[in-house]
Design brief:
Blueprint: H1 2-17, H2 24-42, H3 46-51, E1 53-61, E2 67-68, H4 70-81, E3 89-101, E4 104-116, E5 122-137, E6 140-150
Parallel strand pairs: 1-6
Antiparallel strand pairs: 1-2, 3-4, 4-5, 5-6
């Protein structure tokens, strides 16, 4: 009997380690977290940006040193938001979500920093691919670890998706 139980447990182990797709409520909540980040970034509110991070959350932008902890994340955004171009917007597209555990998600996003050009079209100033661990906290989903890598040749926002760069 022990051998049978051991064999069954071994057979089920790989399934337990595989990421799952999120349920509707988690997908909506994680997409909302991304939209909330866009809104508070656009408003220029570093305190509200950092409030979307777990207390021990971290951020690493484009290979720079890791910014660790909510207070340090806030200081980072105080500094960087002061240098952003006038009219810049933060636009996040959630591309994929893997539930690693019921309270931990790996979220792949494409983030662009955009503004309107002289003709009223959106111009992409910078584009990043983000891999983010988000964790369910008492106050809802929060960013646990954000790793953002700049995309070398961003696609203009006014260019249709799927078009050649």
């Amino acid at each position: 009997m022990r051998i049978l139980l051991l064999a069954a447990a071994t057979a089920l182990l790989p399934q337990a380690a595989c990421p799952a797709t999120p349920g509707d409520a988690d997908r909506v909540a994680l997409t909302r977290l991304a939209a909330d980040l866009d809104a508070v970034w656009d408003a220029g509110d570093p305190a509200a940006v950092s409030a979307l991070y777990a207390v021990d959350g971290s951020l690493r932008m484009d290979g720079r040193p890791v910014v660790q902890g909510r207070d340090a994340v806030q200081r980072y955004f105080v500094e960087t938001m002061g240098r952003r171009p006038a009219g810049a917007r933060h636009v996040t597209h959630v591309e994929h979500i893997d539930m690693l555990t019921p309270d931990l998600a790996l979220v792949d996003t494409r983030v662009s920093i955009e503004r309107d050009d002289a003709q009223g079209r959106r111009d992409v100033l910078a584009e990043f691919h983000n891999q983010t661990l988000s964790s369910r906290q008492a106050e809802g989903w929060r960013f646990r670890a954000v790793r953002a890598q700049r995309v070398a040749n961003p696609m203009p926002a006014s260019q249709p998706q799927g078009a050649a760069r």
